[in-house]
Amino acid sequence: MPLSPETRERLSVSLAQLVRSGRHMSSRAATHLHGDLPSFGWPLLLPLESDGDLRCSALAVRAGIDVSVASRQVAALERAGYVERRPDPQDGRASLLRITARGLEALTTSRALRSEWTGTALAGWDDADAHRLADLVDRLLTDIERAVTASPPSAAGHHDPQAVAG
Amino acid sequence: MPLSPETRERLSVSLAQLVRSGRHMSSRAATHLHGDLPSFGWPLLLPLESDGDLRCSALAVRAGIDVSVASRQVAALERAGYVERRPDPQDGRASLLRITARGLEALTTSRALRSEWTGTALAGWDDADAHRLADLVDRLLTDIERAVTASPPSAAGHHDPQAVAG
DNA sequence: ATCAATGCTTGCAGACCGCAACCATACTCT
DNA sequence: AGAGTATGGTTGCGGTCTGCAAGCATTGAT
Questions:
Q1: Which of chain B's residues have a Cβ under 8 Å away from the Cβ of A111?
Q2: In angstroms, how far is D9 C1' from B51 CA?
Q3: What are the residue boundaries of the structural domains of chain A, listed by start?
Q4: B27 FRET partner, CA 20 to 30 A, in A26, B19, B90, B132?
């Protein structure tokens, strides 16, 4: 039972605005959300925290960016001491990345900042609505990922965009 | 009645992922969503469509970008024929921007593409859930805007150039 | 008439992105 | 083993989007 055209359009417009709004917040200037982490630290450190050591290419896939970009950003995080690398015992070409204590700390700080900001912005919300929204967003994310991986979005480019509406 | 810390954190993480995911779809390569519109056309043409003629500065506020950026993007849209400008009768410095028939057409096409994509990605959803999500997202957007305007982001930090790319 | 304020444009630089070329290592095949 | 290919990662390059600051033209107040 598919969605009605009106619902589809309304949802796509709302999501586009949300994405646009959020883009502004992940900007470099948003230190009230990042702490001392560079703006790209969050999507890289998060998989490293939850899934242990990863290779650069695996990290790139998780973060939805090109390996070359991940390589540069990881190098920056390494210089800043948030991440350390050791040679992969399985493969001499690869390195395994691990989050450092400092990285964990920065991640925790950033998480607290985000959480705090969310709390003040959503002061009028109750837990039930927030949970509903989180549930729906999570479901949306999995469906988006499925849709993107299922049908290549562009014939020419075979990049890995997990793009949605916006 | 404030949100619990767990809910806040979960929501902030989910929304961050959604924003990150959506970022890629506003890329220039996502012609399956933009049609022949440039990627920045959507957030500019949308206010022009709904609110009639606007000045460049008003448009920048609506789109959430700097006036200088809006100026450049509007110039591009004008060159492409999606927008036309006429002198503001009230003020010789300003121009009034209006969406052209071609702009309306492109906007309609883009809207249809987005709607179609949303329909396939959210194939398993029913109208009720989609409506719930759209309602919550809209409410979230208004609350975010309120929070942002209440405490201006420029107050938090000036620019913090930690150049890292190599 | 003068001078500050306003609307917009442009020069500049930063941040992020992907592609292509490249090197070193691993794997496959004969 | 040796040759050829595939893979992981890095770097050069260009492109896009962004904001800041300086500049220009017009407006409005003194």
A1: 9, 12-13
A2: 50
A3: 36-148
A4: B132
SS percent in chain B: helix, strand, coil, step 5: 65, 5, 30
Max mean pLDDT among B2-11, B23-32, B72-81 falls in B72-81
- pLDDT value of residue B2: 76
Decide if B61 touches A, using CB distance below 8 A: no
Mark yes or no for CB contact B7/A134 under 8 Å: yes
Q: How confident is the model at residue B151 (pLDDT cuts 50, 70, 90)?
A: low
Q: How many angstroms separate the CA of B13 from the C1' of C2? A: 57
CB-CB under 8 Å, B23 with A134: no
- CB of B102 within 8 A of CB of B41? no
Q: Write the class of the CATH domain A36-148.
A: mainly alpha
Nearest to A115 among B5, B118, B154 (CB): B5
Chain B residues lying within 8 Å of A140, measured CB to CB = 18, 122, 133
Q: pLDDT category, A156, cuts 50, 70, 90?
A: very low
B136 CA → D30 C1’, Å? 52
Mean pLDDT of chain A, nearest integer: 86
What is the CATH code for B29-148? 1.10.10.10
Mean local confidence (pLDDT), A46-56 = 95
DSSP type of residue B124: T
Nearest to B97 by CA among B113, B116, B77: B77
pLDDT of B69 above 70: yes
- Which residues of chain B neighbour A116 with C-beta distances below 8 Å? 8
Per DSSP (E only), the strands in chain A are 54-55, 83-87, 95-99
Smallest Cα–Cα separation from A91: which of A140, A134, A57? A57
